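At your convenience, could you comment on the folded chain following this short note?
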Amino acid sequence: MKKIEEIPQKAQAVVLKSYNEDQADVEVQEVEVPLPKDGEVLVKMIASPINPSDLMFTKGLYGVKKELPVVPGFEGCGIVVAAGGGFTSKFLLGKRVACGATETGGGTWANYMLTGSDYCMPLKKFVADHEAAMMIVNPMTAWGMVDEALAGRHKAIVQTAAASALGKMVIRLGKRFSIPVINVVRREEQVKLLQEKEQAEYVVNSSRDDFDEALSELCHKLHATIALEAVSGELSAQIAAAMPRKSELLVYGALSREAVNIHPGDLIFQEKTVRGFWLSKWLKEKSLLQKISIAGKVQKLLSSDLSTHIQQKSPLDDIQNALKTYEDNMTAGKVLLQCSP
């Protein structure tokens, strides 16, 4: 192991003690600081956001469950202060990185995180810490899904949860790549928000009585044959029914906490398809050179198309209030945890 500074034996971390759907069972504890082995690095964390996927994880509703107790947090940024064996690990030593948690290890809501070297992306100097901390989950997912739409030569996109941070990124990327985006929201104030703040041209409210008719008209007019679906449940059925023949639902979330619901006739007779999108899997399918290229392109857009509004910054020891603030009003922006020891 190589290091650039002394590593403390213990440090602070948010610890998830049990999976609880009602309220996150977390507390800040002093935990052992793990040391990296081959292919691993130790990151001295700077900041980490709270994302919808984090909330789902603490409730036990995410697609991945880890052995408890465990430190939550899927992404953040920090400095690689220690490296195990391997070329990539040693290359990252001393560098500021955007980093993600592994599928089995501890997460980013801590002073220090042990992770795989392939879960880290070196950062350009022009990228601010708060941008870097939120670079992976939303920006990379938005980029990946729009890339899927472009690769599939779809003429237009439908997206649900369009008023979310990720949804706004998809709107901006749609403009950048000249692909129309039909935005589905559930409240009238979200319609106005996207029209006024994002200059979104196509916004439909799923709570309106004429939603199905309005959505179908737009989907056929623009020939929107791919949907980026974050809600699931009955809304999936409505989206699928509104889209043209041979359309595709790309499911990346389940905010409704319900199963994807689609009429069999849409699958059988309309030849519509459903598949999932998970960023981790999408990135694993890319070569090293492709990952470097994608990371470079995303970093250039972190202050513009892929920017994220922050509604609050909180220290680790205020985790309960931070979680409540974000869950009560996700549309207002991210809550960013300050992780520096």
Observations:
- The longest strand covers residues 40-50.
- The chain has two domains: 2-134+308-338, 141-280.
- The domain at 141-280 is CATH 3.40.50.720 (Rossmann fold).
- The first helix runs from residue 52 to 58.
